[in-house]
């Protein structure tokens, strides 16, 4: 099977990401590419769903099995090929990136990024959606095409780990599970050591892994989820500010009010007056 779609340039110029070509090569034993540095100006994403192959990242050839893939940055040398004895089923996208997308460049790195995914269900859903939206092409589908590609890239950023580090996915999952538990139990007393116990790591290692996975420290995350709970209670209940502070995990009302003002530019009372509900009798109205 060979699916190769060429996408016309978009009518709008505001998309963060937009495909130039996309497709799927299933069990083609001769599939492979060698592009010299500077010869390809877009990003090149391939994800293997079956079979196997190889990709060169920097000086290293890496084996790709189902769930693995690679992302080359623009102007990078590209070398990859299927295994002729077990040809891959590979889904691919060549795409451009607009301004304010430095995160994808960081993800791809200088020589490219080889990654591994635990599950392929979302990859199949999103790429199938891209194929349906692109064939036959209609300018009415531009927004959907760009949105599906953006979602695909965000999914990879969140779920994929380095192919060179086989334990990265397990560590990332452990961090996310601990973050979910902290959010659900944000009113409890949390120390860094207690948070680290949820994932089975030392406090120092947990702090570093948490920041790498979640983009902020565990303490900053804890304040965020506590503040989100406080905002929910402010707009949805008649609890006092002191009661809300305690229910969200803040033991000192003064600290809660100070932090709330710092994070949201207003006091909790003003936030409630601006975004909360008014009470008439026993009914809440906006």
The total count of strands amounts to 13
Q: What gross morphology would you assign?
A: elongated
Low-confidence stretches: 278-282
Strand order of the largest sheet: 1-2-9-4-7-10-11
Report how far the terminal alpha carbons are from each other.
56 Å
Tell me the name of the CATH homologous superfamily of the largest domain: Regulatory protein AraC
CATH architecture of the largest domain: Sandwich
The profile of the biggest β sheet is: 7 strands, antiparallel
Order of helices and strands: EEEEEEEEEHEHHEHHHHHHHEE
Which CATH class of the largest domain applies here? Mainly Beta
What count of structural domains?
3
Number of helices: 10
Radius of gyration: 24 Å
Query: Within the CATH hierarchy, at the fold level, what is the topology of the largest domain?
Result: Jelly Rolls
pLDDT averaged over residues: 93
Helix content bin: 40-55%
Structural class: alpha+beta
Measured by DSSP, the beta-strand proportion falls in 15-25%
């Amino acid at each position: 099977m060979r699916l190769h779609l060429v996408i016309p340039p978009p009518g709008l110029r505001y998309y963060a990401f937009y495909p130039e070509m996309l497709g799927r090569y299933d069990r083609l034993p001769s599939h492979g590419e060698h592009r010299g540095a500077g010869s390809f100006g877009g990003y090149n994403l391939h994800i293997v769903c079956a079979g196997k192959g190889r990709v060169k990242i920097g000086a290293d050839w890496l084996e790709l099995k189902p769930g693995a893939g690679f992302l080359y940055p623009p102007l990078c040398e590209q070398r990859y090929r299927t295994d002729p004895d077990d040809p891959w089923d590979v889904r691919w996208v060549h795409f451009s990136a607009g301004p304010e997308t430095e995160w994808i460049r960081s993800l791809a790195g200088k020589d490219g990024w080889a990654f591994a995914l635990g599950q392929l269900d979302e990859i199949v859903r999103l790429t199938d959606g891209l194929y349906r939206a692109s064939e036959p092409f209609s300018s009415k589908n531009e927004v959907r095409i760009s949105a599906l590609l953006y979602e695909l890239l965000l999914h990879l950023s969140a779920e994929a780990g380095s192919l060179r580090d086989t334990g990265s996915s397990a560590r990332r999952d452990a961090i996310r599970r601990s973050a979910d538990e902290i959010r659900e139990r944000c009113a409890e007393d949390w120390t860094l050591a207690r948070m680290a116990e949820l994932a089975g790591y030392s406090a120092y290692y947990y702090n570093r892994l948490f920041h790498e996975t979640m983009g902020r420290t565990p303490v900053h995350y804890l304040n965020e989820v506590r503040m989100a709970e406080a905002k929910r209670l402010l707009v949805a209940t008649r609890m006092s500010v002191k009661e809300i502070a305690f229910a969200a995990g803040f033991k000192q009302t003064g600290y809660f009010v100070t932090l709330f003002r710092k994070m949201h530019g207003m006091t909790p009372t003003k936030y409630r007056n601006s975004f909360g509900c008014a009470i008439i009798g026993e009914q809440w109205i906006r």
